[in-house]
Amino acid sequence: MNKENQMETIEATKTTFRILQVLIDNREPLGVTELASRTDIHKSTVYKHLYTLRKLGYVEKKNSKYRPSIRFVDFSHHVTEHETMIQPIESLIDDLADTVNETAGLVIERNNVAVDVYVTRSQPERDTASHNRRFLHCSAAGKALLSEWSPDAVKQYVTSEELPAITNQTLTEHQTLLDEISRVRDHGFAFDRQEQYQGVNSVATSVTHPDFSAAVYVSGKPDELSGKRFKDIIPGTLQSTARKVESSFA
Q1: What is the pLDDT of residues 143-180, one digit of tens each?
Q2: Which of 3, 128, 162, 201 has an alpha carbon 20 to 30 Å from 219's alpha carbon atom?
Q3: Cα 198 to the center of its chain, rounded Å
Q4: Residue 19 DSSP label
């Protein structure tokens, strides 16, 4: 067995990042009580971690509520500067967003997490959640990533990982999710009907790259992403963009 796999993880670090993930995923600042409820961590523990993060400059406090600080913007800039894959695809994702008049993005898979590396909106002022990150099972982009795995690898992930119900639409039943991924593998695109964000539908397709798993997606409000546009028109546009993205990697 790999020696690294035998090492114990640091629980305090995991707790800090659980709190940060909730703060980052929420649009509005959150209080200690709400954070404790969402993370299932005792209030006093949440407060200690928030206090430490404030002292380090990673969290800001206003009116007894907390939000991530602007330092994360600097982190993002430094990381994206090293992701040379981003530059050639930005214009392609921008064109996709303009064509479908919705939010569009590209995600990659890192350690069983779907991470946005580029997101753009055709209408920045719209109050629509855009990011497909964290869990693979509850977003169109995540399902598209899973469809590129072998059936055995997907089954291992589904049966061994925690699959939380982010909304009341999230698929968490093992066989239902396995059947869904099989369908995505057969048809080439994945759907998410308010499974990760309430009030947001998404459609995605995978992108082939020799070094990593990736997917492009489109997200929007359910009343705009529905019917034939959602099931046929946008998937076709997405797959065309995916092929262009793959060509840009060549």
Answers
A1: 999 999 999 999 999 998 878 888 899 888 999 999 99
A2: 162
A3: 14
A4: H
Ramachandran area for residue 40 (φ above 0: left; ψ -120 to 50: alpha; else beta): left
Long-range contacts of 180-184 (CB under 8 A, 24+ apart): 180/143, 181/143, 181/146, 181/147, 181/154, 182/151, 184/143, 184/144, 184/146, 184/147
Locate 242 and state its tokens: 């995916």
Do residues 159 and 174 touch, judged by C-beta distance below 8 A?
yes
Nearest to 147 by CA among 125, 178, 174, 170: 178
The whole-angstrom separation of Cα 109 and Cα 107 is 7
Matching residue, tokens 């959602």:
230
- Supply 145's token pair: 């990533």
CATH 3.30.540.10 fits 83-249, yes or no: no
- What the block records as the tokens of 109 is 């898979």
Residue 166 tokens, joined: 């982010």
Per the DSSP assignment, residues forming a β-bridge with 137 are none
Domain 3-72 adopts which CATH fold? Arc Repressor Mutant, subunit A (1.10.10)
- pLDDT tens-digit profile of 19-54? 998 888 777 899 999 999 988 999 999 999 999 999
What residues does each domain of the chain span? 3-72, 83-249
Residues forming beta bridges with residue 30, ordered by sequence position: 66
Report the greatest alpha carbon distance in the chain: 52
